[in-house]
Amino acid sequence: MCLAVPAKIVELQGTAATISVEGALREVDVSLIEEPRLGDFVLVHAGFAIHKWDQSEVDEWETIRRGLEVAAGGGGG
Amino acid sequence: MMVVVQRIGELAQRVGRDVNLMEVCGTHTMAAFRSGLRQLLPSTVHLISGPGCPVCVTDTNYIDAAIALCRRADVIVATFGDLMRVPGSESSLENERAAGAEVRVVYSPTDAVTLAQENSAKKIVFLGVGFETTAPTVAASIVSASKAGLQNFFVLAAHKTMPHAMEALLDDQQVKIDGFICPGHVTVITGAAMYRFICEKYRIPCVVGGFEPFDMLKATEMLLAQIADGRADVEVEYSRSVNDRGNVAAQKLMAEVFEECDAGWRGIGNIPRSGLTIRMKYAAFDAVPALGVRFEPARPHPGCRCGDVLRGVITPLECKLFGKACTPTDPFGPCMVSSEGTCAAYFKYGKRQAAA
Amino acid sequence: MRGVLQVREEAGRGMKHDRILLAHGGGGSLTHELIERVFAPAFGMETLEDSAVREFGGQKLAFTTDSYVVKPYFFPGGDIGKLSVCGTVNDLAVQGAQPLWLSLGMILEEGLPLADLEKIVASIKTTAAEVGVTVVTGDTKVVERGKCEGIYINTAGIGRVVTEVGCARIKPGDVVIVSGNLGEHGVAVMSQRAGISFQTSVVSDCAPLWGLVKTVLDTGAEIHAMRDPTRGGLAITVCDFASGARVGMRLEETALPVSREVRGACDLLGLDPLSIANEGKVVVVCPSADAGRVVSAMQVHPLGRNARVIGEVIEQPKGMALLRTTIGGERIIDMPTGEDLPRIC
User: Across the interface, do B40 and C320 touch by the CB < 8 Å criterion?
Assistant: First the structure.
């Protein structure tokens, strides 16, 4: 019911942050997450960061994404 | 990837009967169709789509009220793109915009607040729809409008909440559900503990799933494993985003601005305590009292079976209007309107399976 | 104007809406409905390729027209002037025609800064020179402030057909090739639109394609059909091919060239890169035996560096385009409805 995309905080001023989704930038509100920091990966929904991932969670997501590509590339012939 | 599909096959054999797994969330429905995931599942495992698309479950009379508002010369209606094509009893916001009404598509409720700051002579009404994921963002925009002393920002709220709706589904004798793939992003906010009563009271397993195709396959595997073992627990597949207690700050903000109310779900009817209404404290931002909005009794389209589709009683293919009178460009019922609505998803990605 | 006309069972039924919606101009299914129900009955057109081809004095000529209302009129990677040349020239090029002459109709809003107009005209001049097409006639109208967004342009173009191509030539076994990354124009323009506000370094791919197309034709490969996937993106192009040629099309999701940034913008807004507009890409359908030299020829051209085979033409299901997904599933590529609306759900 709700799209939320993983994004990286690339600028931060108080509760206003600029996030990057693979280079697409958007101002979002980070007041709903604890201790946002530059470089954090967050889930963004409707202009708000709603959750923060730690590094192992980012790694998991990247593995899933990479896993897809590898699997599809291998089976695509 | 193939490993998880293989394990699903083995588990389905162990279960040895047909199982209905309901993905409650519309974004799961969409992800399943976009990735062609259903084709990878054994024929005994049925993914059925639940009422988790906010556009689908928003009552006709809400759209009618929004349309009445946008026809007022002093009003600009701001909305998520999802609502633009939803049919009310006679018109849609898209039609009204073509007829000259000021309707703006925004990405975030904060964009609507900005719109209010930039258009002080107009009243900006934001259409607040969505579940627990979206409600805190709307609450935050009301609080920030309040802090900024804005007098021309209003919300027409029709937020809904998940647990009592899932309970209502289980209390309906027609609905046969063997397991829930619970909505991942709602649970980011609410926490997974919310589903425990479903396991305890109804003995139905729940797995909170993420939105990559792999996440959904994994969640399916986890549900089948529970069914095979005769367990009914709350498990979290989407553990990179979901924990037991959820986002406490968001919950607090939601409680600050909204309170529980009964809500009408399109196609399902009234479900006690399944909606959110703006508290008295913020009544100045509530479009209903502030702008004198009236809700007419809802008049559903005759022949439309969205209600049965939303409850998972029938698939869209069993509705007489589906694909004929009712198509994505000319939708009757809400399930065809939203691109993630069950019927729209079937129409877009399911045509081929239907033909086969 | 584009789209393949078919007599549908419900032909003669009225339009679904009693007034024009923005989506009627989006190039999707509502645009098709408008053509089928309103224009085709009036003008008796059977099929609409990107250009009309007529024989005159023993020479086959291609003729096309298009109007440009892009907002804002300066956008990252181009402006309405460059676009108005590229769009029309490209419609000729994908018909296998060398662009010769252009007409230029301008509708200006009262109050348009002269400096802006001069910049737009300069860009028309540069782009036309690049293609070797001449602006031979024109017209100017000024409308009251508020009646248009600064400037609208209509161009019509005439070209000499070098190689005849068309949907009807498409056969099962053919391959589908695209000349480069998808969705760049649509994302670049969308980022400038009010209310949606996001920033991206994606710039419009707006470019005249005749040079690239000529390179492809010069290889001597047998080219069956070409399209520039503008409004409605690759999705509409392959749907049109499938219904126009009564064949099936199957694209490979893993083969689709989409830049990281375009994908990011689409993820952010809940949009599908397949249905986003391009203004400098060509989709080519040719026999698989010719695929290698077409792709190699494209890759040495500056506009075709990322060219690749993205799919194939199949027997069944006729009239339908499919996508084989990254996890090995299959889904239908549907005709986009019209206007791209950002979603949160």
Answer: no
Judged by DSSP in three states, B309 sits in helix
A25–C contact, CB cutoff 8 A: yes
- Own/partner contacts of C202-205, CB < 8 Å, gap of 24 or more, are C202/A23, C202/A24, C202/C76, C202/C259, C202/C261, C202/C262, C202/C265, C203/C76, C203/C77, C203/C78, C204/C75, C204/C76, C204/C77, C204/C78, C204/C83, C204/C279, C204/C280, C205/C77, C205/C180, C205/C181, C205/C278, C205/C279, C205/C280, C205/C281
What are the sequence ranges of the domains in chain B?
1-344
Mean pLDDT of chain C: 90
Q: What is the pLDDT of residue C40?
A: 84
Q: Which fold has domain B1-344?
A: Rossmann fold (3.40.50)
Residue A63 sits in a domain whose CATH number is: 2.30.30.140
**B contact test, residue of C198, C263, C327, C337 with most B CBs within 10 A:** C327
- The residues of chain C scoring below 50 in pLDDT are 1-13
Instruction: Give me the domain span that covers residue A66.
Output: 5-75
Tokens for C295, please give them.
Answer: 């792709």
Determine the residue type at B154: F
ipTM of predicted complex:
0.90
The span from the CA of B143 to the CA of C284, in Å, is: 54
Chain A closest-CA separation from residue B240 CA (Å):
5
Count of structural domains, chain A: 1
This prediction has a pTM of: 0.87
Q: What CA–CA distance (Å, rounded) separates B92 from B67?
A: 7
pLDDT of C1: 37
pLDDT recorded at residue C29: 79
How would residue A74 be classed by pLDDT, with cut points 50, 70 and 90?
Answer: very low
- Considering only CB atoms, A46 lies closest to which of B24, B27, B109, namely B109
| Residue extents of the structural domains in chain C | 1-48, 49-161, 167-333
Q: What is the CATH number of domain C49-161?
A: 3.30.1330.10
Q: Which chain C residues are within 8 Å of B78, Cβ to Cβ?
A: 195
Residue B194, CA atoms < 13 Å, CB-side half-sphere:
26
The whole-number pLDDT of residue C270 equals: 85
Which of A58, A16, A5 has its CA nearest to residue B185? A5
Token pair, residue C194, equals: 């009010």
Q: Does A70 touch chain C (CB under 8 A)?
A: no
| Closest CB to B131 among A1, A32, A34 | A1
pLDDT at C104: 97
* Residues B193-218 pLDDT 10s: 999 999 999 999 999 999 999 999 99
pLDDT at site B65: 96
Instruction: Say what the pLDDT of residue B356 is.
Output: 38
Q: What is the topology classification, in CATH, of domain C167-333?
A: Phosphoribosyl-aminoimidazole Synthetase; Chain A, domain 2 (3.90.650)
